[in-house]
Amino acid sequence: MILAAKIIQLRKQANWSQEELAEKMNVSRQSISKWESTNSIPDLNKILMLANLFEVSTDYLLRDELEAPTPTDERIDNNAIQVNLDHANQYIQSKIAAAALTTKGVILCVCSVIPLFFLMAMEESGRLNISDDIATAGGIMSILLMVSLGVSYFIKMNQYEADFDTIDNEQFELCYGVHSVFQEKLKQFRPTYNRRLSLGIFLFISSFAPLMLTALLHGGQDLVKLMLIVLMLMISAGLFLVIPASSEFEAYNNILKDRDMESVKSKRAKRAEKLAAFYWPLLVAIFLGWSLWTMDWGVTWIIWPVGAVLFAALLGLMELFVKDGN
């Protein structure tokens, strides 16, 4: 295979256009086109850049008789599973799909108390002309229904375990060219991840503000309960931003971990996701148990603003212990 054909093959394997390859090589698109059409040959410096970019040897690029890429280093593990571009892309898509299920389940658990607060607010204001017993019974039924639906989403995540097994649990090697593709994808996704994580943390921290201001300035129990709904929605919005972005960021780093690319941020995101999946259903259970035991729904709602602040505190505490443990 001649050099021109190898450049075309490697570029397509990396899923790059001529313009993208030209930008990485710091040349014009016309230069790439001439290389691929055999109208010109890259100089020695460009050959070295191509070898480094595609993670192949210069021998492979220059010797026509070599049909298969040879690695740029000698780090080959014969026991490692080879992961090609399709396999890696499937892993990313499965991680994103599983994160979507996790997000739906957690948000359903968090929002399960919204109908209860709404019905209780309407009962206290007299707008819907419902009794306290009807409001409580309707709210509890909605909690049970939404939590059950949320748990069903957690169970559905099992369908993706086979797609995760190789990269999460086995020793693997990336096929040549795959590492550079996902390194570029991670670089492009990082600003989105940082933006979503920052906004999500802001929503967690500020979710208590509307409730606190309403309690201080107005004091009406019906309006306070409506602000509790706002608190739940802000927490849900934060989870909607953080969980999918964290899972996708973690997936890219898992693909690259054979090159020691797994970052501290990825580990932190993974811990936050696991805490959220455990913490919010548990908080719903505590709220229900306390409320049904005392039947004092006008007091037990306080668990939600306290729980929101405690969630942020637990994240910080986890990082502190991990840092001390290292």
TrEMBL record:
Domain HTH cro/C1-type: 7-61
InterPro entries associated with the record: Cro/C1-type_HTH, Lambda_DNA-bd_dom_sf
Keyword Membrane belongs to the record: yes
Transmembrane helix as UniProt keyword: yes
SMART domains: HTH_XRE (SM00530)
Domain of life per record: Bacteria
Keywords per UniProt: DNA-binding, Membrane, Transmembrane, Transmembrane helix
TM region positions: 96-122, 134-155, 197-217, 223-243, 275-295, 301-322
GO molecular function: DNA binding
Pfam families given in the database record: HTH_3
The name this protein goes by in its record: Xre family transcriptional regulator
Species: Umboniibacter marinipuniceus
